[in-house]
Amino acid sequence: MTTSQPAAKGKRVAIRQDLFTTPLDDLNAVHLKGTKCNDCGEVFMGHVISCAHCGSESMKGIVFNDQGTLYTYSVIQYVPPGDYKGPKDPFIPFVEGLVELPDGIRIVAPVLDCDPKNARINMPLKLKVYDFFKDEEGNDVVAFCYVPA
Fold it and tell me: Coil, helix or strand for 56?
């Protein structure tokens, strides 16, 4: 059993523990990571111990390419329900995309720094890792999105 140490006040912490390469000091050097099945080649986001496609437990960690293309998308016009952490007052419509990476995976992610009117299928995108919000302990919570390449 492992125990997690609380982050020191004012540090950067990942929005989900198994998503990013570390350290989080230089966000330009941080990449998304995943897992690939050694038997069937299926690719998953984050750490996975067995393949949901073939059931194999022969898995290896991989680092995803920072480049991708917009496979499909939707424009979010209203504040999403629940504990939405993005801008609310005023709300700024944004693109939520399915980003296809050359690594063999499609990832749902916001596409920021892109006027929704300019979004298009097959648009080249690049990963952006950024400080998304501050948590209750004053830590910067690091998230990811894609931006036009």
Answer: coil
pTM score, whole prediction: 0.88
Shortest CA distance to 104 belongs to which of 34, 50, 52, 39?
34
Q: How is the chain split into domains, by residue range?
A: 12-148
Residue pLDDT, tens place only, 70-108: 999 999 999 999 999 888 889 999 999 999 999 999 999
In this structure, the strands spanning 140-148 and 12-14 are parallel
Q: Are 94 and 116 in contact (CB under 8 A)?
A: yes
> How many secondary structure helices (H) and strands (E) does the chain include?
0, 9
CA distance 47 to 35: 6
Alpha-carbon gap, residue 11 to 33, rounded angstroms: 21
